[in-house]
């Protein structure tokens, strides 16, 4: 009986580890790769728009 419980526990742990660190899950879309803000064209476009809209505080600039 104890051997059966140990086997079930070992299988449960193995399945959980496989799902956490193992093969890709089928049907789950990959996430967008993480990129730095200075490499993200959307971020740079929004930043440029914000800079153009913001009034300048320095009258000499």
Could you walk me through the main structural features you see in this protein, from its secondary elements to its overall organization?
The protein has two helices and no strands. The protein has helices spanning 2-21, 41-53. The longest helix has 20 residues, at 2-21. The model has no long low-confidence stretch (mean pLDDT 80). This is Secreted protein. Residues 42-61 have a biased composition (Basic and acidic residues). Residues 29-61 are annotated as: Disordered.
> Major sheet: size, sense and barrel closure?
none
What's the Cα radius of gyration?
A: 26 Å
Query: How many E strands?
Result: 0
Indicate the low-confidence ranges by residue numbers. Answer: none
Strand content: under 5%
Structural class: mainly alpha
The H-and-E topology, N to C, reads as HH
Region (Disordered): 29-61
Protein name: Secreted protein
Biased composition (Basic and acidic residues): 42-61
In short, what is this structure?
With 61 residues, the chain is mainly α. The protein is built from 2 helices and no strands. This is Secreted protein.
């Amino acid at each position: 009986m104890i051997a059966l419980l140990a086997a079930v526990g070992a299988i449960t742990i193995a399945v959980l580890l496989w799902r956490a660190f193992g093969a890709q899950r089928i049907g789950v879309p990959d996430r967008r790769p993480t990129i730095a803000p200075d490499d993200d064209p959307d971020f740079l476009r929004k930043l440029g728009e914000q800079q153009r809209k913001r009034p300048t505080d320095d009258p000499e600039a």
